[in-house]
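Recall that a protein's primary structure is simply its ordered list of amino acids. Everything else, from secondary elements to tertiary packing, is in principle encoded there. The following example makes that idea concrete.
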Amino acid sequence: MSQIAQLSEAEIEARFQITGRRPVAFMLAGFAKENEQFSVFFQAGQEMFLTTLLAVFPEKNLLIFDCSGSSESNRNLMKSERNILVGQPDGIRVQFAVGPVSELIYGGSKAFSVALPKYIVRLQRREFFRIETPRVKPLQFFGRLPDDTLLSLSAHNISVDGIGLTAGSLPEGLTPGPVLEKCRFALPEDEHDFFFNGTLRHLSERETRGGASVWRVGLQFIKLPLAEENRIQRYIGKVERERHELA
């Protein structure tokens, strides 16, 4: 499991950021040429829709991308000051932040234009941003091992790749490798529980400050649908926003 969230900004930049107007424009132009789809998150992560990158004009410092089919979503995006675009070209997660957008006509249809981002975060395969989940009222995970043993554990972090769990004790003989089917947990304020299959990737025992032993369990999502990734991404954005407001 990735520990990107624990890296400093300098370490993230050195390992994952593509910076400079020319490299950024070149990469985005490649995505536009392939009509790559991205999810655009706006209104502080409260709303999103799927879009396609259409064109890049480096000399004008502009990125063009498609509008939503919803007039209301388009209006709300135009009111948003900071927006995040997330995609997976060739299976590699790419995300970048942009500022306010403007509406224009491109290729005979309505589209959005926005200033090119200052940098692009291009993560290696299987490496994803991870956040620590709230300790008060933590996410509660439920799943069954292949022998039908029930696991009920609290989550301590989450990403679109998987979830980190904490356990006071574990079933004897448990090792990484098994697939847990029909797992579930509830994201706060979501109407429906989150269901998935997951692979048990790692187990590690740690000692708390009080001297007690706890287990850290890493569970990787299996073929998570894009809609479910978006649910997690919205939750991550909400947690980050609330922490920023309290800072």
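Helices lie at 9-16, 21-33, 71-79, 226-246. DSSP finds four helices and 16 strands in the chain.
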